[in-house]
């Protein structure tokens, strides 16, 4: 306080020493702005400085306001233009030749701006200006960002020191130029108007903007009109405006209420996106007229079937509603608390019936797998696949993984999602569904559930030959006993348990090797028989590797001759009962595994191909009619049971019949 008084005394002294030099004081807030008039006809008792009495400075042209006038006159601004604002960084100047003053506007004040300035008209007159920048006022220099949606009404609050109670309050807009929007001494403020200033409260006034549109986007300033003695300005006093607060208003597209359709017993994933500046603000979710539930940040919070996650880094509120029933239908609101209000998004959730789609799929490591999905909507929506996490929340696939996922086009309401180069981490539960995007909200209604299990690539051996089954294990287990078993190890169903520590001399069919350097346990089985086909598991203690299928190709191939134009009936033996029979064409038997069958027990007729089973005789027959020369080649008969295949090679030789030879 004392320092202040001393400063004021020094200031007054400076103003007086200069005799005829006029001097006035302008007070600003650090972080705020000021606007004042530089008068060239004095309202005070002094006369203006005579022409040519002051030193000239060639750098100054026309009207100017600056610091260090006699040196570089910086920082500051000057102009020879009239009736328009000119800007130089934080300074702006407006000269109206018809008036007896020009206006100076300075934004974003800081303590460094504190000091003496000069304003004037070069060569003609000048006045000294003492700029005081306060940093100690509790209501000084706050700058805020506010967001509003089109059509919304928003209210700003501006705090001022109590001593300004009876002063005029002003509200400006800076859109390049500072423009007065309204002030508290303006009388007409009907409730129909867009801007309403209300100054009835204690130590603050409010400005309400109604029915916000794109045009209201921008920066606003609120402040008080004052004179140097902080008395309410009068006709005579040299006034200025101290802007206390700067408000940046952002305008966002309107949030209409959004309808989301989801399905009974399935789930829906909704993402509500809020404006950037509310990332850290408290979010909430509300159903119908129940109480708002405020959400913890950056963790999943569970309320019965509703799971909520406030992702502060992305600025979104994720809502996952699982195991939907008709009771979940209703209106949900996701919202965020703002400084003195909140923003809401309204979601009308409609629950419909859709078929029950659950599939278990087996994928081979390193290969690709296709998951089929239904799209109940007629229009083409954005296809989506997600994977359940430990909390059974279906999260979208990370962008780095996404390149392995691909969707087919939908035909007849069905599309496939394929995952390529399947690896261990892909095992789990997947859901597919359709994604709908609105301006601030994305929803994914899930339709199909897939349980994906993994297996190692199959090992294919020929009857009578040998195969090696390789089991890699964790290096921690190098000294432990390893097992290879058919069926499931350590259960009653387990068969043919082969141990790494056993003496296999008695069984010359099998040899084992445990390479503890490579952490690889290898079993070589010779004299393969059809019965060896099946699922094998490698295990150490009670830790199982992925299973692998040993598939057998029968030693004897079927050689069949037929003539072009005629038909062929190919008879294939099968060993096991209750298996699926398949018939495929290709160089390798694996064509049968990869959906390549021409005919099968599931699809007995396919064009010229048909399949009949005579189970009691242990054979099935494939008939190919209307034979063509190009039908010659290699085919495979296969029998399959739970993924376990036994193949028989078929060679079809076509000869020209006598009729053709005669031609
Ligand atoms: C703020 O500081 C000024 C001087 O910089 C002083 O005159 C004034 O009394 C101070 N106000 C308060 C409330 O401390
Ligand atoms: C205001 O000035 C300060 C330095 O005093 C600067 O750091 C800040 O970026 C400026 N703000 C604006 C909005 O120009
Ligand atoms: C303004 O005051 C605050 C504390 O009241 C202080 O932290 C800050 O450094 C001051 N700024 C200046 C420019 O003096
Ligand atoms: C308030 O607004 C009226 C009408 O626009 C204007 O005449 C008056 O000068 C303004 N007062 C201040 C302090 O800006
Ligand atoms: C398949 O994935 C493995 C890792 O899981 C990677 O090392 C390999 O390069 C991938 N292959 C292809 C063809 O992308
Ligand atoms: C398995 O062992 C037999 C006899 O020791 C050997 O002839 C054969 O090459 C081995 N098989 C493989 C695939 O290594
Ligand atoms: C192997 O041992 C290390 C160190 O004891 C341990 O961190 C790791 O989890 C173990 N790996 C397995 C698969 O048990």
TrEMBL record:
Gene3D superfamilies: Immunoglobulins. Residues 66-119, 150-239 form the Ig-like domain. It holds the Pfam family V-set. One of its GO terms (cellular component) is plasma membrane. PROSITE patterns: IG_LIKE. InterPro entries: CD300_family_receptors, Ig-like_dom, Ig-like_dom_sf, Ig-like_fold, Ig_sub, Ig_V-set. The keyword Signal applies. GO terms for molecular function: transmembrane signaling receptor activity. SMART domains: IG. Residues 1-23 form the signal peptide. It comes from the Eukaryota. Keywords: Membrane, Signal, Transmembrane. It is found in: Membrane. The keyword Transmembrane applies. This is Ig-like domain-containing protein. The lineage of its organism: Eukaryota, Metazoa, Chordata, Craniata, Vertebrata.
